Amino acid sequence: MKTFANYIDGQWIEGKTTAPNVNPSNLDDVIGQFAEADADDAQRAIAAARKAFGPWSVSTPQQRFDVLDQAGTTILARKAELGRLLAREEGKTLPEAIGEVARAGQIFKFFAGEALRLGGEILPSVRPGLTVEVTREPLGVIGLITPWNFPIAIPAWKIAPALAYGNCVVFKPAELVPGSAWELVNILVESGLPQGVLNLVMGRGAVVGEAMVASPDVDAISFTGSVATGSAIAARCVASGKKFQLEMGGKNPMVVLDDADLDVAVEACINGAFYSTGQRCTASSRLIVTEGIHDRFVEAMCNRLAALRIGDALSADTQIGPVVDARQLEQDERYIAIAREEGGTVIGGERLERATPGFFLAPALVTGTTADMRINREEVFGPVASVIRVKDYDEALAVANDTPFGLSAGICTTSLKYATHFRRHVQAGMVMVNTATAGVDYHVPFGGRKGSSYGPREQGSYAREFYTTVKTAYIHAGQV
Ligand code: ADP
Predict the structure, then answer these.
(1) Can the keyword Oxidoreductase be found in this entry's annotation (predicted)?
(2) What pLDDT band is residue 479 in, cutting at 50, 70 and 90?
(3) 143 touches ligand 1 (CB under 6 Å)
(4) 247 tagged catalytic
(5) Which of 271, 272, 380, 390 has the fewest CB atoms within 10 Å around its CB?
(6) Three-class SS of residue 434?
(7) What is the model's pLDDT at position 390?
(8) 382 lines ligand 1 (CB under 6 A)
(9) pLDDT at residue 477 above 80?
(10) Mean pLDDT across the chain
């Protein structure tokens, strides 16, 4: 069995312990043994990043462009193979996984260009003889903590801007998906990153993540994961004066109005709620449907659900792969039971047997729910969506906003009036009209409001807000 080491200060370092990376489509298939860093490894990685920051922070944009562009080229060239690894360790289908890898490659290409595009401003001072120059500088050492549901895209959209703007990185991937993270770091190393600039510390959140959050030598933390962990990290960062950025949960509404094109609405809801096994923070988990279309919508959804093929992520005809692990499966089943106890009618949602032992679950649609039920207030993070029947657009908007979260929101309608009003008044960072709540481009801002997110947006040129700090300089040139 192959063993995969951490990467600290330019060296591959074995862990004192290792953990197996298991395929959720086939529990007999172990992808490899992955090193588990401890707090000392994390400290060494942080120290290496600190040491490397001096030279890297003043590297030329061309140097940074070259590394990131090369990494992007390699990722794109290897997307079929890396996609296979990703599908094998996380359980999304092969086309979804290859698409995610391609997106990671494009992110590196985009941020290669951003290294060249980072400009500043020159303003006249209100005082005579003075000029004001506003520039951006890197922050220092950034700790990146990522979740399991996008094993390569989320690391890419944190690592690429961090490096593009001249920061050094300590990267801790999620325990369940170290394979894609390891390959990504290996590609960056082979693309010519100097020693210490990027460090990989695989291991447990409570040990490695905790050491990063606690260290005075880490200047900023970018985290994507659960609300509970994010809130704890936020409190620690405030106490130690670190800059931080959090992307956490969602309970994303998709409104379907009477005047919607039914086929468009069903497609957007099936995709948004169930593709990638519903394991996306932008998944549509609350389908808010007006009464004139409700019954036709539910019937069409049930027909589509019954025809979905759930199985091994690597099989060509699979549309929905397995749930990522036993703990998540238990959570999905618990919420399905809660929805039933609260009075919802559950269609689907049963465990499925396949040729190999894996975490297969039929997607669940829960009808007859109300906005106050737990199934509509708490994030499940699985292939589970509920239907809330409402009278009209006004009630639909009110229900859509009746949530502690605010990541993504959607509406299916042919009315320009309602689409326009919804775009303006829904409380979410991202709004989709007649398309799924999940699935955002790599070059535009990603992030939410309320309990979903904290700090500046990720992705696109907006990423510079988090990964740089602004300097205002005055130049006194005398009388000219
Ligand atoms: P999930 O429940 O979906 O796994 P988590 O928020 O627990 O979400 O995990 C997201 C990331 O946060 C993972 O990389 C995990 O290892 C890390 N993590 C978990 N606990 C902590 C912690 N106490 N401090 C820092 N990072 C943590």
Answers:
(1) yes
(2) low
(3) no
(4) yes
(5) 271
(6) coil
(7) 98
(8) no
(9) no
(10) 97
Q: End-to-end CA distance of the chain, in Å?
A: 72
3-248+452-474 topology per CATH = Aldehyde Dehydrogenase; Chain A, domain 1 (3.40.605)
Q: Can you tell me the distance from the alpha carbon of 72 to that of 6, in angstroms, rounded to the nearest whole number?
A: 22
d(Cα 112, Cα 104) in Å, to the nearest integer? Answer: 12
Residue 165 has phi, psi (to 5 degrees) of -95, 10
What integer is the mean pLDDT of 218-241?
96
From residue 425, alpha-carbon distances to 1, 222, 410, 420, 457 in Å are 54, 28, 12, 9, 19
- Fold classification of 252-433 is Aldehyde Dehydrogenase; Chain A, domain 2 (3.40.309)
The answer to whether the CB of 146 is under 6 A from ligand 1 is: yes
Sequence-distant (6+) residues with CB within 8 A of 40 are none
In ligand 1, the atom with minimum distance to the C-alpha of 145 is 14
CA distance 176 to 22: 8
- Would the CB of 307 count as within 6 Å of ligand 1? no
Contact 252, 405 (CB under 8 A): yes
User: Which pLDDT does position 1 carry in this prediction?
Assistant: 86
CA of 174 to the centre of ligand 1 (A): 7
Q: How confident is the model at residue 401 (pLDDT cuts 50, 70, 90)?
A: very high
- Centre of ligand 1 from the C-alpha of residue 60, in Å: 34
Indicate the residue type of 480.
Answer: V
Q: Exposed/middle/buried for 40, CB within 10 Å: 0-12, 13-18, 19+?
A: exposed
Of 36, 89, 247, 379, catalytic = 247
Amino acid at 430: M
Q: Average of pLDDT values for 19-26?
A: 98
How far is the CA of 205 from the CAs of 6, 189, 220, 241, in angstroms? 15, 24, 17, 21
Torsion sign across C-alpha atoms 394, 400, 404, 405: negative
**Residues 372/343, Cβ–Cβ less than 8 Å:** no
Indicate the domain borders of the chain: 3-248+452-474, 252-433
Over pLDDT 70: what percentage of the chain?
Answer: 99
Tokens standing for residue 418: 């309602």
Q: Given the CA of residue 226, which atom of ligand 1 is nearest to it?
A: 6
pTM, two decimals, is 0.98
| Helix (DSSP H) and strand (DSSP E) numbers for the chain | 14, 23
